[in-house]
Amino acid sequence: MESIDRDLRSVQEARDLARLGKIAANQLADYTEEQINKILCNMVRVAKDNVVSLAKMAVEETGFGRVEDKTYKNHMASVMLYDSIKDMKTIGVIKEDVNQQVIDIAEPMGLLMGIVPSTNPTSTAIFKSIIAIKSRNGIVFSPHPSALKCTLKAVSLMHDAAVEAGAPANIISSISTPTIQATNELMKHNDIAMIIATGGPGMVKASYSAGKPALGVGAGNSPAYIERTANIQKAVSNIIASKTFDNGTICASEQSIIVEECNREEVVAELKKQGGYFMTAEETIKVCKLLFKNGHTMNAKFVGRTPQVIAEAAGISIPEGTKILIGEQQGVGEEYPLSYEKLTTVIAFYTVKDWHEACELSIQLLQNGIGHTMSLHTEDRDMVMKFAKKPASRILVNTGSAQGGTGASTGLIPSFTLGCGTWGGSSVSENVSPMHLINIKRVAYGLKDCRTLASADSSFNYPELNNYKVNSETGCRGASSSLNGVNIDCADNEKLLNLVNELVKAMKGVN
User: Fold this and answer.
1) Of 132, 200, 294, 370, which residue is least crowded by CB atoms under 10 Å?
2) Gyration radius of the chain over CA positions
3) Cα(254)–Cα(342) distance, rounded to whole angstroms?
4) What Pfam families is this protein classified in (predicted)?
């Protein structure tokens, strides 16, 4: 009975938040660029003041990741994001083509719904709050139950900072009792204009099934190919820095390393030197039994954990200072569990003959994270262009996937919602930004006379239409016409009309 009452309360809360959020969003739609910038600056200031405390809360509540890395995530979601979008035009006239006389005008969508994952709870809440306000939208969050406290704190800080700077109350809010019923209520609520879904495949699929626009992301399973021309020391350093960043909780992080036979020994030696531990076949099996349940579904107990925690639980001994656990694999699929996504400090390792085999293997691996991300370490630009054809929305070169994919170490826009395109069942293939949260109206002036579009167009030349042209003097269509099936030349049209008139007069005379 208590559970039923809780569900009912959570649904009612969702309805109230949607109603109040819609009112606030309608008010924010009239704000000027100056007002929005003032609000954003205050939100970024407050976020910066709390990046460390929020990171501590997230690690303490979820057990995932590392405080220093979650701090940097919060910094990315606020300071770095703002620097990237502050000059972005999202209000009023955002573009004008003088020659074509077309004007693009940005309009907000209204009230958004933001789904927050447990792996990046505070950074995602900050990120989505800022891009929502930048595009003059309100947002209401559905937090992951296992990260409720830290998400609510982040949302509260963003709301209060926005209101303090002049935003309407309730412009940023969150469900305080997350239930499936409340989340579904928000997804389908008439006042929600769009859903921004960051989370597991089930939640993303539900978002796209809610009957309204949604921005969702798919699972990642990023392969990292170290090609024969690569700077191996640098490649290994980037891969380890990426895979250990927040203990592998970013979905863009490397899941497999691919090397060639010609550089295998050098890569293996460098990985060992920099803290990689190559597990035996038996140790790999033990670790896989811990990491996965129900096939290749990641066990939440080992998401974002250190190699030491995983090794101890698996009953294996690893050297002091180990940073990542590496398991050699001979194929892709159910029999090779490490060929799937692992949001922790464990990575698969493959050896191929050449780039052709690396290409085929990358495509196979990407089928389990299709459309997301892959990385390539090479000094050969032609090789980069060959691998740019792979089914991934982000092809990263000579950088770590986690930092590169989210825009921390590349020129991509900082984002914690990474689109996977139609490959991964996503409506967007880019890093989601404020530009994805606006409607664009186009004002278009007439450039041509509608009456003479065809006649004034020299490219409109179709001789077969000659029989359908209308004679402006006679009104006769084409070269001839017909009367009761008898063809009549247009030149005799006047005689025909006279004959008809004589017949009419004769008929009247009879009467």
Assistant:
1) 294
2) 31
3) 9
4) Aldedh
Q: Check whether 481 has a pLDDT greater than 70.
A: no
Residue 184 has which token pair?
């579904």
Using DSSP, how many helices (H) and how many strands (E) does the chain show?
A: 16, 19
Q: What residues are annotated to the active site?
A: 251
DSSP string, 350-376: EEESSHHHHHHHHHHHHTTSTEEEEEE
Q: Are 128 and 174 in contact (CB under 8 A)?
A: no
Residue pair 209/184 in contact by the 8 Å Cβ criterion? no
- 3-state SS of 69-101 is HHHHHHHHHHHHHHHHHCCCCCCEEEEEECCCC
β-pairing, 480-483 with 486-489? Answer: antiparallel
Both tokens of 404, joined, read: 């590169």
How far from chain centre, in Å, is Cα 409?
18
The whole-angstrom separation of Cα 110 and Cα 29 is 8
Q: Which two tokens stand for residue 232?
A: 């191996």
The answer to whether 325 and 347 have CB atoms below 8 angstroms apart is yes
Q: Which two tokens stand for residue 296?
A: 């290749």
Structure tokens at 239: 């891969």
State the SS3 of 295-337. CCEECHHHCCCCHHHHHHHHCCCCCCCCCEEEEECCCCECCEH
CA distances in angstroms from 424 to 152, 182, 215, 221, listed in the order given? 30, 27, 12, 11
Q: Is 319 exposed, middle or buried (0-12, 13-18, 19+ CB in 10 A)?
A: exposed
Q: What's the chain's average pLDDT?
A: 92
> 115 phi and psi, to 5 degrees?
-100, 130
For residue 454, give both structure tokens: 């065809």
Give the position of tokens 């880019």: 430
Residue 506 makes CB contacts below 8 A (sequence gap 6+) with: none
